[in-house]
């Protein structure tokens, strides 16, 4: 496991990341991305993504939290509720969800993606950590509690 801190710049060259053709409802949206980071276990990644005008379905097979940097989009959930996202707005799309994205002209976002851990595996990990702490094999975490670290 690498402990090297990595730094980058805001000037990244995005690569084509086409939207699945069957998902496009209207227009000819052009999407691009750049992976900023990926965890050592490949379960989490952070990327920059942008897209031109169009309307399309998006089916989430991972958990994704987005932060809009530029432009905007309306997102319609499966209940038919329309949500507007503009610069500075965030949204969380859990794995298994679906939304219709309508990009009027352009959107640029940072996306924090994570493959969800199945509940039984998460439970087993918590039990293991608790047993390790009780047996003295592990030190308790110091500072603020980290996500999923509760035992």
Q: What would the CATH topology of the largest domain be?
A: Jelly Rolls
> Helix segment count?
1
Biggest sheet architecture: 9 strands, antiparallel
Q: Which CATH class of the largest domain applies here?
A: Mainly Beta
- Work out the strand percent: over 45%
The CATH architecture of the largest domain comes to: Sandwich
Rg calculated over all Cα atoms: 19 Å
Order of helical and strand elements: EEEEEEEEEH
Helix content: 10-25%
What is the CATH homologous superfamily assignment of the largest domain?
Answer: Jelly Rolls
Give a structural overview.
This protein has two domains: 15-114, Jelly Rolls, CATH 2.60.120.10; 117-151, no CATH class. The chain has 151 residues and is mainly β. The chain has one helix and nine strands; from the N terminus they run E-E-E-E-E-E-E-E-E-H. The model is unreliable at 142-151 (pLDDT under 50).
A few lines on this structure:
By secondary structure, the chain is mostly beta strands. It has one helix spanning about 120-135, and strands spanning about 15, 25, 30-40, 45-60, 65-70, 75, 80-85, 90-95, 100-115.
Can you tag this structure with a few keywords?
single chain, 151 residues, mainly beta, Jelly Rolls, 2 domains, 9-stranded antiparallel sheet, 1 helix, 9 strands, 11% helix, 45% strand, globular, disordered C terminus
């Amino acid at each position: 496991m690498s402990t090297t801190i990595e730094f980058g710049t805001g000037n990244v060259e995005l690569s084509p990341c086409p939207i699945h053709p069957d998902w496009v409802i209207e227009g000819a949206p052009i999407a691009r991305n750049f992976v900023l980071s990926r965890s050592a276990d490949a379960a989490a990644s952070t990327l920059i993504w942008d897209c031109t005008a169009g309307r399309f379905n998006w089916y989430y097979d991972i958990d994704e939290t987005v932060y809009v940097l530029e432009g905007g989009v309306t997102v319609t959930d499966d209940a038919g509720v329309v949500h507007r996202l503009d610069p500075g707005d965030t949204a969380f799309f859990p794995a298994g969800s679906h939304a219709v994205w309508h990009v009027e002209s352009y959107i640029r976002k940072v996306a924090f993606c994570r493959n969800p851990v199945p509940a039984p595996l998460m439970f087993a990990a918590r039990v293991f950590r608790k047993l390790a702490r009780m047996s003295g094999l592990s030190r308790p975490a110091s500072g603020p509690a980290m996500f999923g670290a509760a035992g």
